[in-house]
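Hi again,

Forgot to attach this to my earlier email, sorry! This is the prediction with adenosine-5-diphosphoribose bound. I've pasted everything inline since the attachment limit keeps bouncing my files.
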Amino acid sequence: MARTKIALIGGGMIGGTLAHLISLKEMGDVVIFDIAEGMPQGKALDLCQSGAVEGSDSQLKGTNAYADIEGADVCIVTAGVPRKPGMSRDDLIGINIKVMEQVGAGIKKYAPNAFVVVITNPLDAMVWALQKASGLPRNMVVGMAGVLDSSRFRHFLATELGVSVEDVSAFVLGGHGDEMVPLVRYSTVAGIPLPDVVRMGWMRQERLDEIVDRTRKGGGEIVALLKTGSAYYAPAASALEMVDSYLKDKKRILPCAAYLNGEYGVKGLYVGVPVILGAGGAERIVEIDLNAAERAMFIKSVESVKGLVDACTQIAPQLG
Ligand code: APR
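Structure tokens for the complex follow:
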């Protein structure tokens, strides 16, 4: 049986972390593609040597040639520029849309059967652009944001309550921006919905509101601390949770940026929603019931995604 081939398009901070985690977990062989000369080759060589210590037989190769991603089963896209302090994700659009056009052409030519996870920001617009530029089936192209946003929410909740993060499950919907929608009603501690956790007196409502707000701004908090770029450990781990569900056909229900064709009343956009991920890629969008307040927040978030996609079509009309 052929070994799984995972192509990382972009070998920077997230790309390097992805390569390391894939090797440690022996999820497959890795090709790191980047436009920077020598850097992906150097990272791959370093990681191969760490495999000797870790006991990993994953093979890693760094490259500047798209031909090397040929036949990849999975592509994870982090190519582009990250935020610096003071920037919003949306400020990246002008540069990263051009990058998505190049990456889309490379994937179309060499890995048209791959499952593609996009991480590049602004996420919901970049995954839209990548799908357009590559022409791959919409169910095979998804964006990673919801797993990361939910992991931030889970971490804050577990720390606040003093419980294992394993027992906290959280759902965040909508676009990957400050308008995202942490769904308090559908987030639970050992199965207890958060409104009940508040009613039980375990956490004050004001504290929960602060945690929701911190989750929304979770990426910016890290950018402000790092000063040179944005988060990379949790984004890499989150993308691999999605890839694992695809490769093992686990059918996990994970919040992903998925193409909506009428679901949630949205057509023609990628937005964060719960998705069943399996061998067929994004196999099914799970439409959960939203109350009036949640729906209003969701619509606001969708509007900001729409604004970003409109900006993309102005910069790159051929994608529209
Ligand atoms: N093709 C391939 N690689 C590219 C291209 C391109 N056209 N343009 C830039 N790159 C590479 C850079 O050379 C760099 O190595 O993309 C890599 C990006 O890595 P970092 O700058 O370290 O950024 P990272 O922290 O990995 O974040 C990547 O993910 O979360 C998002 O906002 C983040 O958009 C950013 C992306």
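The two ends are 40 Å apart (CA to CA). The mean pLDDT is 96.

That should be everything now.

G.
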